[in-house]
Amino acid sequence: MKLHPFYECVDAAEKFMNQGHRVFQQFNCAACGAKQTMDLPNVFYKTGTCEECRHVTNIEKDGCNYMLHAVFR
Which domain holds residue 49? Predict the structure, then answer.
């Protein structure tokens, strides 16, 4: 997964959130490389713990991405 600077992702995701969509933050574990997706929508964390190896990744430094769950009414 391509990673982008943390604050650029937050800014881009906020536009979708403000439109009523759900955004799930994603990051790659800095130790084992496993792709991780946060459980809570519309929340961006600066660190994340890998479910595979339990390493704590500095997402603010390493970058992230997000998954968009578009909601149409």
Answer: 6-69
